């Protein structure tokens, strides 16, 4: 009951001060909006890149080439071993005849080139699909050391590693940018709140003299920070809601192979993150400025 | 009960406002604090509601040593002390009613109680009809009464007043004194710093004379001219 009573007071005070703040409130909301919109864009970009990397990874094909002569027992041993590895999604045995046939199909009209061959130069092979590129190295190492019937192993190692490296660089740079923007927003929120605190220092002094507790004095300012942060967050969400579909439309014709993320659940999670970040910036910003002012 | 033992206060600019001062004030006492400007009257009052801390010695209120009070306990000490400030400290942006109600709101009182009690004290100081006015729309004397109403609204055990009749014409100051006496008779300790000879002489209460931060006289039923001139 008392809590509701106090809460009511805090929120009312916060709203009054928020609207009285005018230009300063507007400035800090704008800063938060811009920072969060950029943060959101970075999140979206990395989300798409992750999706892209995921698709690339799911297409990771490993081809095991077998030696010319081997016994059926040894082959069965290898097949059994492969089936037991959980990271391997599927495996298909391709005989040298099948491989040649496949090659012939891929060459299409130039298949006459193959006619010049007297014998089939292609080895028997096993094609593997692996769930995640991260486990590729280990699997390959294990296979190589264990089975002598393996002549060579080929896989799209380079592409996967490049994508992984790029994602990592992007993540680091994005984090740095977001941290800088976050600090700037916090600084501006804290300055805005500092101005409201300053404008109301007389009131705060009297509150203290008649026996208001520090937390009672502090809460309205914290709510004001929350309000600014939440407002900025909502604005950023609106910006992204409007611009992102347009960006997808424009890029789709240019990059038809790119799988853009537009699942509702992913986007809602993103919006949630933005709103939360806004509120967080607001709270920290106001705490910084209120803390110093309370020693009346 | 308010007790001070060998208390001195030296401000950061080096001014020694109070000098080795000891006094006991019983619950329900009415005390006039007199002395020329700069004698330490305001600092004396500030010590009691812990706006300032003593440099040496102790201030004990109802058995609690206030310099050992943690910051988080200070608000609760102040809730039991009403203060009428020399400069009123009213908020210009709030009405008379809001200025008084504010003092109850900020200690977390419920709306209905705040409303009843605020109207009560405004009636007591005779300002209920000006409740909706802003401080700048009323006279200095009326502002002072608003300040008194705010000091009383939380029904404090101790009332400190700094020159409360300084800006008032004699009729009104008589009214205010009657009011303070009434409050005092209900059991509130009243400590009043003043220059007003007439009031001190009419009331015949305990008179404490300060000079250069020291108590030079403490008389049970004092008279202004007698205490100061001797």
TrEMBL record, chain A:
Q: Where are the transmembrane segments?
A: 23-45, 169-189, 226-247, 268-290
Kindly give the InterPro entries that the UniProt entry links to this protein.
Answer: ABC3_permease_C (IPR003838), FtsX (IPR004513), FtsX_ECD (IPR040690), FtsX_firmicutes-type (IPR058204)
**Where does the protein end up?**
Cell membrane
List, for all copies, the residue spans of the domain called FtsX extracellular: 60-145
Q: Where is the ABC3 transporter permease C-terminal domain?
A: 176-293
Keyword terms, alphabetized: Cell cycle, Cell division, Cell membrane, Membrane, Transmembrane, Transmembrane helix
Which Pfam family, an example, fits this chain?
FtsX_ECD
List the record's Gene Ontology CC terms alphabetically.
plasma membrane
Keyword Cell membrane present in the record's keywords: the answer is yes
As for membrane topology, the entry says: Multi-pass membrane protein
State if Lyase is listed as a keyword: no
Q: Which GO terms describe its biological process?
A: cell division
Major location category of this protein: membrane
The similarity comment for this entry is: Belongs to the ABC-4 integral membrane protein family. FtsX subfamily.
- UniProt name for this protein: Cell division protein FtsX
Q: Which source organism does the UniProt entry give? A: Muiribacterium halophilum
From TrEMBL, chain B:
Cite the InterPro entries for this sequence.
Answer: AAA+_ATPase, ABC_transporter-like_ATP-bd, ABC_transporter-like_CS, ABC_transpr_LolD-like, Cell_div_FtsE, P-loop_NTPase
Q: Which SMART domains match?
A: AAA (SM00382)
Could you tell me the superkingdom of the organism this chain comes from?
Bacteria
Q: Which UniProt keywords apply?
A: ATP-binding, Cell cycle, Cell division, Cell membrane, Membrane, Nucleotide-binding
Where is it localised? Cell membrane
* Cellular component GO terms, alphabetical: plasma membrane
Oxidoreductase: is it a keyword of this entry? no
Q: What is its main location?
A: membrane
Q: Which residues form the ABC transporter domain?
A: 2-228
Q: Which SUPFAM superfamilies match?
A: P-loop containing nucleoside triphosphate hydrolases (SSF52540)
Q: Name one GO biological process term.
A: cell division
Q: How does the entry describe its membrane topology? A: Peripheral membrane protein
Gene Ontology molecular functions: ATP binding; ATP hydrolysis activity; transmembrane transporter activity
Q: What does this protein do?
A: Part of the ABC transporter FtsEX involved in cellular division.
What the entry lists under PANTHER family is as follows: CELL DIVISION ATP-BINDING PROTEIN FTSE, IMPORT ATP-BINDING PROTEIN
* Quaternary structure, from the entry: Homodimer. Forms a membrane-associated complex with FtsX.
What is the similarity comment for this entry? Belongs to the ABC transporter superfamily.
What name does this protein carry? Cell division ATP-binding protein FtsE
């Amino acid at each position: 009951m008392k809590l509701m009573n106090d809460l009511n007071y805090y929120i009312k005070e916060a709203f009054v001060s928020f609207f009285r703040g005018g230009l300063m409130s507007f400035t800090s909301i704008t800063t938060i909006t811009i920072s969060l919109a950029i943060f959101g864009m970075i999140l979206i970009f990395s989300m798409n890149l992750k999706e892209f990397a995921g698709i690339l990874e799911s297409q990771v094909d490993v081809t095991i080439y077998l030696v010319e002569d081997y016994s059926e027992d040894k082959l069965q041993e290898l097949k059994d071993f492969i089936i037991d590895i959980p990271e391997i999604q599927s495996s298909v045995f391709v005989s040298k005849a099948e491989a040649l046939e496949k090659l012939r199909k891929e060459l299409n009209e130039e298949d006459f080139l193959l006619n010049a061959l007297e014998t089939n130069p292609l080895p028997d092979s096993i094609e593997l699909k692996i769930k995640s590129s991260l486990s590729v190295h280990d699997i390959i190492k294990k296979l190589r050391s264990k089975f002598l019937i393996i002549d060579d192993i080929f896989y799209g190692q380079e592409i996967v590693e490049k994508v992984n490296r790029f994602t990592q660089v992007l993540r680091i740079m994005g984090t740095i940018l977001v941290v800088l923007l976050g600090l700037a927003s916090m600084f501006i929120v804290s300055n805005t709140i500092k101005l409201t605190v300053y404008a109301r220092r007389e009131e705060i002094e009297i509150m203290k003299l008649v026996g208001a507790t520090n937390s009672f004095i502090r809460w309205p300012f914290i709510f004001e920070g929350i309000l600014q942060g939440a407002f900025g967050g909502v604005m950023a969400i609106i910006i992204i809601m409007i611009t992102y579909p347009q960006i997808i439309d424009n890029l789709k014709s240019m990059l038809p192979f790119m799988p853009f993320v537009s699942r509702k659940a992913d986007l809602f999670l993103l919006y949630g993150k933005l709103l939360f970040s806004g509120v967080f910036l607001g709270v920290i910003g106001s705490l910084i400025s209120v803390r110093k002012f309370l020693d009346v | 009960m308010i007790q001070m033992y060998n208390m001195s206060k030296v401000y950061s600019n080096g001014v020694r406002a109070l000098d080795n001062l000891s006094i006991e004030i019983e619950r329900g006492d009415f005390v006039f604090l007199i002395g020329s400007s700069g004698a330490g009257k305001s600092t004396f009052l500030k010590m009691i509601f812990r706006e300032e801390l003593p440099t040496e010695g102790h201030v004990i209120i109802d058995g609690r040593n206030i310099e050992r009070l943690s910051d988080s306990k200070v608000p609760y000490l102040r809730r039991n002390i009403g203060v009428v400030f020399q400069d009123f400290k009213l908020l210009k942006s709030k009405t008379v009613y809001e200025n008084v109600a504010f003092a109850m709101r900020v200690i977390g009182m419920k709306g209905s109680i705040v409303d009843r009690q605020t109207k009560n004290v405004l009636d007591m100081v005779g300002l209920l009809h000006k409740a909706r006015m802003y401080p700048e729309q009323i006279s200095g004397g009326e502002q002072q009464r608003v300040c008194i109403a705010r000091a009383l609204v939380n029904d404090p055990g101790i009332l400190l007043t700094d020159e409360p009749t300084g800006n008032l014409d004699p009729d009104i100051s008589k009214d205010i004194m009657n009011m303070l006496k009434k409050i005092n008779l209900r059991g509130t300790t009243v400590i009043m710093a003043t220059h007003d000879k007439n009031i001190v002489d009419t009331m015949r209460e305990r008179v404490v004379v300060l000079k250069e931060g020291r108590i030079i006289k403490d008389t049970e039923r004092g008279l202004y001219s007698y205490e100061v001139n001797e």
